[in-house]
Structure to design on (351 residues):
């Protein structure tokens, strides 16, 4: 991956953007796309849209900019901070982790407490719900804590990007800063190649809370087709239940979903674009729903032909999500290739 593109990815991954508190991450995305977009606009909730003007065909390349996290729910007399989840946070991975509480005056470091193994009763060693876990910021009472944090302050894991072997990285929140990276890069690459279509790149908010930003953008934008890029489960790691295996592997290319929200013509167009650009893709069955912004886009207005393209990701919704940078770069190339060919397609089904 080119140095400038990797720097943008690292900036996104290093910026906390839990659902409902995405402003800083959205600003980083807007600053990047502003260098090559004809126009960039945001709405009242922070959804961001960049456009490169072209022909009558209008297509959108979308991702969601928010990540899961926690929030300060209450402060006890001891100064211990009780949490509530933001989105689908995993109670099995939170104890013993370093966190940051994001306040109006800057981040406050803390740790999610875990009783030492020596002191725990093995017969009662169940995993506590997030609401029963606590953050220790080092204070001795509630008055000290309340001088530093407020109820409603968001919390994220304090996790940096780790370089693994074979061009792979581990980080928190790859879901889904990699999707907005791919959308921005797909737009930039399509613009460089002179796409005939009008191409939008979109970074939505609050996907983790029920696809809320995509509902707003889908109503407002009304493109001819949308490709929503998100992470998808790579089920090639040990421990995946056999009934949950999808055949998706790290390092084997972006994933094109079929079924449910995924419009068959958009599926065909993206697969054809992949073949033309010599990009290897994987297929995934989504019989009922994709669990991504595509599920909101395709029912917006009178129905927007939509598709979910996935970046293979291990250990989703943990602080150690893993992906292959080659898969991510290929996803941006695929989005650009689709944008370049979009004017050749009629996004409708024949009845």
């Amino acid at each position: 991956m080119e140095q400038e593109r990797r720097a943008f990815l690292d900036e996104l991954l290093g910026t906390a953007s839990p659902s409902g508190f995405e402003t800083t991450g959205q600003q980083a995305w807007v600053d990047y796309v502003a260098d090559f977009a004809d126009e960039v606009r945001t709405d009242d909730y922070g959804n961001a849209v960049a456009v490169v003007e072209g022909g009558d065909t209008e297509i959108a390349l979308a991702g969601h900019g928010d990540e899961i996290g926690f929030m300060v729910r209450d402060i006890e007399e001891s100064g211990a901070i009780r949490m509530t989840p933001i989105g689908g946070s995993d109670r099995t991975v939170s104890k013993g982790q370093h966190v940051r509480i994001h306040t109006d005056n800057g981040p406050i470091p803390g740790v999610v407490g875990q009783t030492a193994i020596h002191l725990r009763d093995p017969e009662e060693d169940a995993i506590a719900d997030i609401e029963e876990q606590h953050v220790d910021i080092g204070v001795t009472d509630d008055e000290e804590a309340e001088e530093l944090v407020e109820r409603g302050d968001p919390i994220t894991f304090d996790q940096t990007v780790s370089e693994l072997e074979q061009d792979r990285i581990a980080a928190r929140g790859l879901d889904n800063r990699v999707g907005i990276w791919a959308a921005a890069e797909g737009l930039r690459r399509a613009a460089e190649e002179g796409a005939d279509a009008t191409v939008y790149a979109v970074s939505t908010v609050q996907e983790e809370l029920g696809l809320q930003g995509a509902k707003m953008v889908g109503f407002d934008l009304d493109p001819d087709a949308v490709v929503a890029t998100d992470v998808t489960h790579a089920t090639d790691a040990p421990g995946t239940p056999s009934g949950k295996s999808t055949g998706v592997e790290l390092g084997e290319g972006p994933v094109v979903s079929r079924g449910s929200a995924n419009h068959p013509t958009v599926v065909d167009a993206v697969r054809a674009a992949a073949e033309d650009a010599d990009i290897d893709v994987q297929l995934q069955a989504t019989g009922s729903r994709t669990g991504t912004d595509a599920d909101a886009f395709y029912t917006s207005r009178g129905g927007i032909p939509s598709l979910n393209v996935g970046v293979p990701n291990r250990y989703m919704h943990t602080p150690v999500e893993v992906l292959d940078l080659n898969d991510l770069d290929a996803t941006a190339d695929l989005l650009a290739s689709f944008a370049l060919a979009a004017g050749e397609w009629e996004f409708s089904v024949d009845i």
